[in-house]
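agent> fetching stored inputs for the xanthosine-5'-monophosphate docking request
agent> found them:
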Amino acid sequence: MIVILDFGSQYSELIARRIRETQVYSEVLSYRTSIEQLRQLNPKGIILSGGPNSVYAQHAPACDPEIWNLGIPVLGVCYGMQLMVQQLGGQVEASDAAEYGKASLIIDDPTDLLTNVEDQTTMWMSHGDSVTALPEGFKVLAHTANTPQAAVAHHDRQLYGVQFHPEVVHSQGGQALICNFVYHICECEPTWTTEAFVEEAIREVRAKVGNKRVLLALSGGVDSSTLAFLLHKAIGDNLTCMFIDQGFMRKLEPERLIKLFRDQFHIPVEYVMARDRFLERLNGITDPEEKRKRIGHEFIQVFEEESRRLGPFDYLAQGTLYPDVIESADTNVDPATGERVAVKIKSHHNVGGLPKDLRFKLVEPLRKLFKDEVRKVGRSLGLPEEIVNRHPFPGPGLAIRIIGEVTAERLNILRDADLIVRQEVNRSGNYSEFWQAFAVLLPVRSVGVMGDQRTYAYPVVLRFVSSEDGMTADWSRAPYELLETISNRIVNEVKGVNRVAYDITSKPPGTIEWE
Ligand code: XMP
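agent> prediction call returned; pasting tokens
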């Protein structure tokens, strides 16, 4: 295993993902992880992440300097390198010319860390401070025009530092450098494979759960579906999947999901029809937060009633993923006060989720995985592409895409419009180009003309975005032909809609969903 100590970089998770791409397991831990803990974990290598601070700031985060004496190879990235240099007696100063963006890296020493990295290559920089004097025993491996010490090493002690970010996609040769560190310097074996994960997860689940019964709330998304496959493989009929139909899913999706699971995958699903209850709860409600709250509460109520009816259960399966459990993001320090501030804006939207104080014990076999790894696991277990590659869909579903009051009539309008969007996006072959592509129904009406008749009906807004993780997003430059077809079909086929608009707002300042 490779441990990444997080100093508050927005790229710490990305480093972990890059390491895992080399089939070596990695974990992100706080920079405050003690030496004893590190010794216990016994990683093959340690990477110190970048961070937003200056190593000379009064409350700059620092690791225990004993780390340099563990005999474990260390790679410091950006802030991590500066910290290494400072703690070992070198010098770090504010640079005259800060470097942001692509920089041309010239290699001075192509041995170990930089093997297979081209002599002159592009690496991505983002720093205001620079190393100005190296500690004893260190040498320069590479430089750029503005940074004479862009990569450094103490070969005997296996301590390495790079000022640039090898983990970002703009760094050519970045992955080669990471492979060199992982395989040649740390001597890791490529054992982190999907097959190995599945085998171990099944073993662990069996050991933990034994003959006890497990309840899983299936949503049809890739996480809960993968979880269902994995658990069914591990414990068979001791798993009960429950699907609560709130009535806010896309047209025909509940039926399709149940059919797939029952008939094709042979995993039984308890279908709970709760459409009327949810709709009743939303009667007259227009405030977005109130809608979300009510849907959340109703979900919990139905879930509790149904689990009592079907139970008793000992365990509840949850699709918690690694980004939810990483202990980080408390590393950013306000230099004026020394107080820790959260720079990461992470909104947990799981209003459809469950409260922590339910009486179940939890089983969370996906908690080590990133989303792309869940997809690989799902695929290897036989989950079809239509689920593996499905766009994200919010827990409260179409209810938060109907602005204003949610009624049965307006749900039908949006379902029909949304189906056309899905059909045409699929047909165009552009599905995977978009992070999400969906329709929103507005409560205002506008005038139009159809045949020789005046119409006065609702507009539908198309929201197509590209994104890496949903935290930020850009509006998609969807092909005009696709938009034209969708628009024509919606105004012709969906009664109650006479206008289609396209949302050209990125996130921020907009959000992806309209509510
Ligand atoms: P926003 O609208 O905040 O959405 O830009 C970011 C991503 O999160 C999804 N989303 C949700 N997912 N339950 C979920 O499981 C929710 O309540 C929820 N609200 C938004 C949204 O679709 C986008 O992918």
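agent> quick read of the result: Residues 288-310 form the longest helix (23 residues).
agent> awaiting further instructions
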